[in-house]
Amino acid sequence: MSSASLGPCIVCEKQDSPRCLRCNSAFYCSKTCQRIDWPVHGLLCGSFATFNASSRPTEEHFRTIVFLPNNKEPQFRWIHCKWLPISVSRHSRAYTFLVDGSARNKSVASIIATQQGDYHDWRGPITAYGKLGPEPSRLCRDLDMNDFRHIADYFLSYGHRLPQLTPPAQQVAAERVVFSMTILAVIVVAAVAILLCY
Ligand SMILES: [Zn+2]
Ligand SMILES: [Zn+2]
């Protein structure tokens, strides 16, 4: 985690924003931006606040974020740098999540549930980790709550399709039926009124 007390707002990128008072990690320029980010940030803010940064097992362990299939909330975890791959072909790997029989990833599901839309069906355990410098890099770095927002945005943009805005054909047809029945009812009422007048 960067030691600077001010940084760019994670929502609107406004410079010199203070940190979240609870996790002391993500930067927010205002309560409004903090509220916008809370559905995602809230999944991990408390966990980061209580994560013991001085419990690093060795200098070669780094703070990663794990998304486990059966946990609704992601978690921070120390992982030894040598276990983190130098580079990952995300796309080819992501596609196998759909066909390898792995359980649905509930941690990622919690993130994509914060926004409407049709998303990629992430499966199996997923670890997000930080690397320093250009790929291929052997140097690792700790992830923090600012990274978590970017990771969440990755899940929220990968294979995302906008919610259907035009009503389905069946619904349009049903509306037409209601409309013609209303016209029929008006004609009947008018006919009854004419009959009563005579
Ligand atoms: Zn802001
Ligand atoms: Zn926080």
TrEMBL record:
Annotated ranges, domain MYND-type: 9-45
Pfam families cross-referenced by the UniProt entry: zf-MYND
InterPro entries: Znf_MYND
Spans traversing the lipid bilayer: 177-197
Keyword check for Isomerase: no
Keyword Oxidoreductase: no
Keywords attached to this entry: Membrane, Metal-binding, Transmembrane, Transmembrane helix, Zinc, Zinc-finger
Protein name: MYND-type domain-containing protein
